[in-house]
Amino acid sequence: MQVQTVSFECPFCCVTLKMNAHLSLSEENATHYSDGYIEYEDSIRLSRIVQCPACNEVFFYDSLETQPLCNPDEICVDILEPPVDRYFELLKNTGLTSEQELYLRKEIWYYGTHHTVGSNEILNNPDFKNLWLDNLEILEQNLTETDNEQLLLKAEANRHLGRFIRCLELLDKHTGEKDNKYLKTIRKKIRKGSTDVFEV
Ligand SMILES: [Zn+2]
């Protein structure tokens, strides 16, 4: 995967920020998980959500105008990876598009299942854990049954919440290949009562 430095202006305090961004995402050697999470070969996973260290605001950077490099005459500050409480805070932002909200809710889900530090943070804090579960619940409601990709995510969210019957009902609505390994594995996990995410 090719990574390049990009710079952009913080929309809140106008400081010039820089970060590494994907030039292209190579599917080769990428690991896909049953909940839709993708891990790339060099384990660099760059979120679309960043935090400005100057003003501490958290926002989606990908709707901003970015420059391919940092101008040498300018001071560029490295962005921060926002802590999980800021993700929950960002959810309250009414200016998010439905696509951004879906992305954010999925990122919160993955924070608890794929982020080593993040998952400890969530599991050891009952308040966060409740917020995290509420998020998964709302995400599940927002995912549609008409789109096969969203339908499978919805099924996985239900399995994760321990609602195995609902998960199986959703799998039956899948209009693609019925007998694929992915669907079989989900059914097998349910028979074992497992809510674990698995590699696809
Ligand atoms: Zn700022």
On the 0 to 100 scale, the average pLDDT is 88
* Major beta sheet, strand line-up: 1-2-7
Order of helices and strands: EEEEEEEHHHHHHH
Number of domains: 2
Q: Shape, please?
A: globular
- Give the names of the bound compounds: zinc ion
Distance between the termini: 20 Å
Q: Give the class from helix and strand content and strand pairing.
A: alpha+beta
Strand content: 5-15%
Question: What topology does this entry show?
Answer:
Elements: E1 2-9, E2 16-24, E3 31-32, E4 38-39, E5 49-51, E6 58-60, E7 77-78, H1 84-90, H2 98-113, H3 116-123, H4 126-142, H5 148-160, H6 164-172, H7 181-191
Bound molecules: zinc ion.
Zinc ion binds at residues 10, 12-13, 15, 52, 54-55, 57.
Structure description:
The chain is of the alpha+beta class and 200 residues long. It has two domains: 2-78, no CATH class; 84-191, no CATH class. 40% of the residues lie in helices and 14% in strands. The chain is built from seven helices and seven strands. It has helices spanning 84-90, 98-113, 116-123, 126-142, 148-160, 164-172, 181-191, and strands at 2-9, 16-24, 31-32, 38-39, 49-51, 58-60, 77-78. It has a three-stranded mixed beta sheet with strand order 1-2-7, with no helix packed on it. The chain has a two-stranded antiparallel sheet with strand order 3-4. Helix 4 (126-142) packs antiparallel against helix 5 (148-160). The radius of gyration is 19 Å and the shape is globular. The two termini are 20 Å apart. The model has no long low-confidence stretch (mean pLDDT 88). It binds zinc ion (ZN). The site of zinc ion has 8 residues, from loops.
